[in-house]
Amino acid sequence: MNLDWKDLLSQKIASGEIDREEFIEEKPTQAKEPETIEVILDKKGRKGKTATLAVGFKCDENRLKEIASQLKSRLSTGGSARCGEILIQGDRKEELKKLLSEMGYKVR
């Protein structure tokens, strides 16, 4: 009788000689695609003062605050972070786009 490797494997699994879990293939992990962040200027509700918003973060609030802290420090300006967006005081659109790109985010 001529058995191929699949038959031999099923016999060994059926007899309990080896566990089935040992032969379950792991799916390759896909490379995480960077988040797409939109950078916009906003004056609405700020008494005419300009603010730059980075919208579209999908991380938790703690991570968002860390990112905002790094950006505010590098831009030497104030700002805040909440609800998936970072607010930077002033018209810093181009500088913010550059910094976010350097941090690995896809920016529009």
From TrEMBL:
Pfam families: SUI1
Protein biosynthesis keyword on record: yes
Source organism: Duncaniella muris
Span of domain SUI1: 38-104
Keyword Protein biosynthesis in annotation: yes
Keywords, in A-Z order: Initiation factor, Protein biosynthesis, Translation regulation
GO terms (BP aspect): regulation of translation
GO molecular function: translation initiation factor activity
InterPro entries cross-referenced by the UniProt entry: SUI1, SUI1_arc_bac, SUI1_dom_sf
Name of this chain's protein: Translation initiation factor
Taxonomic classification: Bacteria, Pseudomonadati, Bacteroidota, Bacteroidia, Bacteroidales
